[in-house]
Structure formats: structure tokens, C-alpha cells
């Protein structure tokens, strides 16, 4: 049995989905798993239910913004927890936990008996297009400095791995994000009782938090340009007030926050899935949409471009007008929607299930996939 610690500040959305999936699988494989985490505004109230009972969760307040004094205190607390647990592996997730954890790892740098350290960015901070060149340059400089710490990067997509090698470090392995495919419902549009075409309004939508990274203003512009009695634009999720206001002003139906089961049920009612992200690592929501059998139109950014293959399972686009052109073509052609949706589903089933992801992760860690579960003799 190996002891594995996950450290995550970005405790919501896709990062939380991936951390819970990984931690649960590792625990069920017989390993001792601890998750040291913060809680954000977007952290769901029932987050503990996402983890199996055997996963030990430790709350450690971490701030997303840089705050030297608080960061020092948090780093000291993190050091104490890791020293007391004495894990074989420490896996850091997203920017803030990655920065704090890499600095803490220096305490073990000259020791041969310390844990092996890994860092998954889940979307590189310096690729955040909305932040501007100056701020992105600062993010890149910080990452270049931290890249000198001997920690192995784990990229969640091939394109993220290429960016890490280009800008930061050659010490990187790619472990694609994945989903539990058994929990993804089939899109209603692909079921036999839902013949195409249908008399109802065509539903075009996305699933996720309304936030800067997901670019709700871009989504709203696409919806405004395509306003029609035959189309319904839907955003399954809630979040930042300004983003929600922009969506509603464009006639988009915003569901507000809902739990995973409800979100997946809403996903199944869509006909076309769109992802207007400014940046990504490898979007879990897009994998889920593909697994449901939906064609996808997405921005041509890191992560999205690993999943969406033009004309095969969807389309990549750069501008609202390009989105509109692809969506109009799909809206007018039920057979094309079905064809691309079926090909998207086959693609997700072949490459993005949990089994290959966990095998790749264990190989990166250098530990056996399944722990020895033989019970110890009692005296």
C-alpha cells in the first residue's frame, strides 16, 4: 500500500471532478489517500459526498491571490501535514497549490527518503488570455522560477504538455483527463424514441461555472447573433453575477448552480454542445458531452483542440461569427448532428475512460496500481 497526498486550492469545477475521481480510484485500489484542500466560493456544499469515505480530507485554507504572510503560514502548515503523513507521493493540483507545494518540497530536496512530487496545472496560468500580456508575463516568470524545483509536471492533455515543454520544463508526462463513462447519460437526440428532426426547439448549450475562464460574454454574443424561435441557448450552471447578467440579456436560459446528477441530466437534453473557453487544460465537460453523443463546437485553445477534430466530432472556432457558421450548419442538418455526435461518443469511449488514465498515473508515480490488500494477522 502506498500513501498518496493530493493538495488542491482550486476546489471546484473540473479540478474537483478530477481530484475526486483520482482519489476515489486510488483509495478503492487499496492505497492510503489524503486530500489537503481549500474551499472556494464555487465549492459545492456537498463536496464530501464526491469522495468515498476512506479518503481522508483535511481542510487547509489557501488564498488564490498572492499574499506573502498568509502564504508563508499556509506553506508552514502544509509542511507539517506532509511531514506527519510521510507519504510516498505528493500530487499538487492547479496554480496556487502548485506554487506552495513546490516551495514546501524543497525541504525534502536533499533527502533520499522523501516523497515523490508531482504537479498538475489543470490549465496554465500564463495562457489565460483575458489577463493581458503584462499579467501573463508575470505568471510565466513565476512559473519559470518555480520550474527549477525538481517536481515532475503532469499535463492533462498533449497540448498542455507541449506548452510546458516549450516554456517551462522537459520533466513532464502526459496523463489525459478522463471521466467515469458509466455515469454519463446518452443524449436524448441519439435515443430511438427521439427521431430526427424533432418539432421542439433545438437546444444549444454548455455545462459549467459562469466565470472568466469560460467566457460567458462570448457565449452571449453567439446566442444574440443566432436569436431565433427555433433555437434555445442554455447555460447549465451559475456563477459570477456579471456573466449571468450578460447571458440573460442575450436570452440565454441560465439554470443556476445544480449538482452533478442534475447537470448531467440537463446535458442529455442538448442537441449541440459549445465550449467558449478562453483557456483550458483538458475540459472534463467536453469529454462528458462527447460521451453523451453530442457534437461539439469549441474555441481553438489548449485542451479543446485535443478533443475536437474538425469535421469528425465537431468544429473548432476562433470568433463568434465562426461559431455561428458552424452552429447554423449543424442546426440545419440533423443527420450531420447525429453523425458527429456518434463519432464524438466513440472517440470519448476509446480514449477518455478512467482505466487508461489511472494506469498512466500509477506509471508516472512509479507505484503499483493495486495495493496488497491481504489483511494483517491479528494477535
Mean pLDDT: 89
Total domain units: 2
Radius of gyration of CA atoms, rounded to a whole number: 21 Å
- The helix tally amounts to 13
The fold-level CATH name of the largest domain is Rossmann fold
Describe it.
The chain is built from 13 helices and 13 strands. The longest helix has 18 residues, at 68-85. The chain has two domains: 3-178 and 354-365, Glycogen Phosphorylase B (Rossmann fold, 3-Layer(aba) Sandwich), CATH 3.40.50.2000; 181-351, 3-Layer(aba) Sandwich (Rossmann fold). It has 379 residues and is of the alpha/beta class. The strands form two sheets. It has a seven-stranded parallel β-sheet, sandwiched between helices.
Provide a quick synopsis of the model.
The chain has 379 residues and is an alpha/beta fold. It contains 13 helices and 13 strands.
Offer a few descriptive terms.
13 strands, globular, Glycosyltransferase_grp1, single chain, about 375 residues, alpha/beta, Rossmann fold, 2 domains, transferase, 7-stranded parallel β-sheet
Amino acid at each position: 500500500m502506498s500513501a498518496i497526498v493530493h493538495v488542491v486550492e482550486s476546489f471546484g469545477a473540473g479540478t474537483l471532478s478530477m481530484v475526486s475521481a483520482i482519489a476515489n480510484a486510488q483509495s478503492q485500489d487499496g492505497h492510503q489517500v489524503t486530500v489537503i484542500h481549500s474551499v472556494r466560493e464555487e465549492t459545492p456544499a456537498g463536496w464530501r459526498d464526491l469522495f468515498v469515505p476512506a479518503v481522508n480530507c483535511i481542510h487547509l485554507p489557501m488564498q488564490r491571490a498572492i499574499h506573502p504572510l498568509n502564504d508563508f503560514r499556509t506553506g508552514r502548515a502544509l509542511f507539517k501535514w506532509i511531514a506527519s503523513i510521510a507519504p510516498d507521493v505528493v500530487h499538487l493540483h492547479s496554480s496556487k497549490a502548485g506554487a506552495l507545494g513546490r516551495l514546501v518540497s524543497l525541504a525534502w530536496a536533499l533527502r533520499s527518503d522523501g516523497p515523490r512530487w508531482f504537479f498538475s496545472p489543470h490549465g496554465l496560468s500564463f495562457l489565460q488570455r483575458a489577463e493581458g500580456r503584462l499579467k501573463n508575463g508575470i505568471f510565466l516568470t513565476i512559473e519559470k522560477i518555480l520550474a527549477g524545483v525538481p517536481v515532475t509536471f503532469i499535463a492533462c492533455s498533449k497540448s498542455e504538455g507541449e506548452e510546458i515543454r516549450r516554456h517551462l520544463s522537459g520533466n513532464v508526462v502526459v496523463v489525459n483527463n478522463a471521466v467515469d463513462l458509466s455515469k454519463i447519460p446518452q443524449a436524448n437526440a441519439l435515443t430511438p424514441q427521439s427521431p430526427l428532426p424533432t418539432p421542439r426547439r433545438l437546444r444549444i448549450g454548455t455545462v459549467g461555472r459562469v466565470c472568466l475562464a469560460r467566457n460567458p460574454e462570448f457565449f452571449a454574443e453567439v446566442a444574440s447573433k443566432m436569436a431565433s424561435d427555433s433555437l434555445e441557448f442554455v447555460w447549465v450552471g451559475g456563477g459570477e453575477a456579471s456573466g449571468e447578467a450578460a447571458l440573460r440579456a442575450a436570452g440565454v436560459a441560465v439554470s443556476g448552480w445544480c449538482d452533478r446528477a442534475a447537470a448531467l441530466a440537463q446535458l442529455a437534453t442538448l442537441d449541440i454542445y459549445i465550449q467558449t473557453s478562453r483557456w483550458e487544460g483538458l475540459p472534463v465537460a467536453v469529454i462528458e458531452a462527447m460521451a453523451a453523443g453530442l457534437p461539439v463546437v469549441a474555441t481553438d485553445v489548449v485542451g479543446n483542440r485535443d478533443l475536437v477534430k474538425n469535421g469528425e466530432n465537431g468544429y473548432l472556432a476562433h470568433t463568434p461569427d465562426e461559431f455561428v457558421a458552424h452552429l447554423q450548419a449543424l442546426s440545419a442538418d440533423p443527420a450531420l448532428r447525429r453523425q458527429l455526435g456518434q463519432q464524438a461518443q466513440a472517440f470519448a469511449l476509446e480514449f477518455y475512460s478512467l482505466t487508461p488514465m489511472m494506469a498512466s498515473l500509477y506509471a508516472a508515480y512509479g507505484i503499483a496500481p493495486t495495493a496488497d490488500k491481504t489483511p494483517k494477522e491479528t494477535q
